[in-house]
Write a structure and sequence with these properties.
127 residues, P-loop_NTPase, ABC transporter domain-containing protein, Type_1_exporter, 4 helices, Rossmann fold, 17% strand
Length: 127
Amino acid sequence: MFAREAVTEEDIHRVLAAVRLDDLVSHLPHGLDTPIGVEGLQLSGGERQRLAVARALLADWQVLVVVEVTSALDGVTSDEVYNALRVYCAGKTLVIIAHRLPRIDPTDQVVLVDQGAGTVTPGSRAG
């Protein structure tokens, strides 16, 4: 089982496109069936991050916590991954822990922590 019982190949390709891994998969010799090594060692750090996000987005969950989920990505790809998170997490709880504020909108709350003290800003826009 990839992430949940009812996941289809179409679902997989849709989420891979959302996190910009569709081009990589299209160039693999056996597509989705291509071995990528133990713990994905044949992938770059950014590809591993995006694959982890894709798997999480295909899972059946109500709360998702991501930590430094785009730390190995360039700005454009990072924005696209955060957009995928926003779309796939609609109606669910998404907690983003990051040193750089993502450009994800809308957010219900932003908590900025500086030297252990947190400031909650309801209805803030991150970015």
